[in-house]
Design a protein that fits this description.
Helix content: under 10%
Radius of gyration: 17 Å
Number of strands: 7
Strand order of the largest sheet: 1-2-3-4-5-6-7
Distance between the termini: 27 Å
């Protein structure tokens, strides 16, 4: 357990579903998120990155949601001042799997590809997400 204060983030999300008129649930969706992270520690070293994220998902079968996500991060200050990074992440989400009553499980995975010239943090990365919903 870390004794550092937790990171804070200000974010705004804009979800959008795209449904056919005869369907109750949308077969496709997009989510746009923008925000700024305030990391604990020396702000002059870590900076305050500006983040944007755009995700497109399509609903297949009953539980499968293939997706493509684009992440963009820009550092206006700190050690990475003026740098940016862009990742494209193809992936899939499996869910909502009913566990008990209203409790459901959602599991997702994807692989991030760095597509920008400057990679101040890392090149490529596997992503795994496990969530319980109620």
């Amino acid at each position: 357990m870390s004794r550092r204060p937790p990171a804070r983030a200000n974010r705004q999300a804009i979800p959008r579903g795209y449904a056919r008129s005869e369907d109750k649930r949308p077969p496709a969706s997009s989510q746009r998120v923008a925000g700024r992270h305030y990391l604990p520690g020396d702000i002059h070293t870590l900076g305050t990155p500006l983040l944007t994220n755009l995700t497109f998902q399509y609903h297949l079968l009953q539980l499968l949601w293939p997706e493509v996500e684009v992440n963009y991060t820009y550092w206006p200050n700190g050690a990475n001042r003026g740098k940016n990074q862009v990742f494209i992440t193809p992936g899939a989400v499996l869910g909502r799997i009913r566990l008990y009553g209203r409790l459901t499980l959602t599991v997702g995975t994807g692989y991030q590809f760095a597509v920008s010239d400057a990679h101040p943090q890392y090149e490529n990365n596997w992503i795994l997400s496990v969530r319980t919903n109620f």
